[in-house]
Write a structure and sequence with these properties.
alpha/beta, TIM Barrel, five-stranded parallel sheet, three-stranded parallel sheet
């Protein structure tokens, strides 16, 4: 139903609903959704929570994932995904867009926009995708201060601390940072770019009782694992951050090539979402029915006669 009607909106905050999902049995599966349409399609597929990737978001804007966008630009995406789907959303908060006060501002803006959770990472700007080389790590104490600031600013938002330390400080360094971040107020830990099943298991064994997030991105350092395999290794959540964007981008690339080659879209019709399917997905008829129920057409009377 349309999100315009108060009765159709969730009664609890997104943060509380995200926490409830974490308490349910089984691993929480969070597919990446880079816009409102992707969010609707993921919800229709049966997912109960979603993820907004900084890499997918910036790529959809034609920009690299180097921390160059602002809190308000991210909030635009948060708002459309949360409104479209009504599902609790985990948002990529990059490095927090500055220092402790900036992190607090980010948390308030994201929570007000409808986010249920956010993750912060311990890189220095210009930050990079976690699966690339030559990442520069922030001081662990400085990152802990950001985590503490995020926890202090939130109402119900789930705060997840991401550490990129495994690539440069090894598993020992990543675990030490993770423990420090949990002490600072994090609700969960995201160990980025682990590259073997043994590393995933070892990290989980050394963080008993801590909810852990696994990243199943394609074309990175992590081998392909299923949600069930991550769960067996001790992980509470898994994201597929850029998958929807990769598939959409390839489809668009093929479409534009076909138009340039064939002078039209006639050879691509069978790959398209139909008009009826589009309208069903976005709930056009629900909005029309809502409009008709509120705004009745007034038929004007004839001109007054002398």
């Amino acid at each position: 139903m349309p999100y315009l009607v108060a009765a159709d909106l969730p009664s609890e905050s997104a943060g509380r609903r995200f926490r409830a999902l974490l308490r349910e049995p089984g691993i929480l599966q969070l597919p990446g959704t880079h816009n409102g349409m992707a969010a609707l399609q993921a919800k229709a597929a049966g997912f109960t929570g979603l993820y907004l990737s900084g890499a997918a978001m910036t790529a959809s804007m034609g920009l690299p994932d180097l921390g160059v966008i602002t809190v308000d630009e991210v909030a635009f995406f948060v708002r459309q995904i949360a409104r479209a789907s009504g599902l609790p959303l985990l948002v990529d908060g990059d490095t927090g867009y500055g220092e402790a006060l900036n992190v607090m501002h980010m948390v308030r803006v994201f929570e007000e926009a409808g986010a249920g959770a956010v993750h912060l990472e311990d890189q220095l700007l210009p930050k990079k995708c976690g699966h690339l080389n030559d990442k520069k790590l922030a001081d662990a104490g400085d990152m802990a201060a950001k985590v503490h600031a995020a926890a202090k600013a939130r109402r119900d938002l789930v705060v997840i601390a991401r550490t990129d330390a495994a690539a440069t400080e090894g598993l020992d360094g990543a675990v030490a940072r993770a423990k420090l971040y949990m002490e600072a107020g994090a609700d969960a830990i995201f160990p980025e770019a682990l590259n073997t099943a043994e590393m995933f298991r070892a990290f989980a064994e050394r963080m008993p009782g801590t909810p852990l997030l696994a990243n199943m991105t394609e074309f990175g350092k992590t081998p392909f694992f299923t949600a069930a395999e991550f769960e067996a290794m001790g992980y509470a959540m898994v994201i597929w951050p850029v998958s929807s964007l990769r598939v959409a981008n390839r489809a668009q690339e093929l479409l534009y090539a076909a138009i340039a080659r064939d002078g039209g879209t006639h050879k691509m019709i069978d790959r398209m979402q139909t008009r009826a399917e589009l309208y069903a997905t976005i709930g056009l008829h629900d909005y029309e029915a809502l409009d008709a129920s509120i705004v009745a057409t007034v038929i004007p009377e004839g001109m007054p006669q002398r």
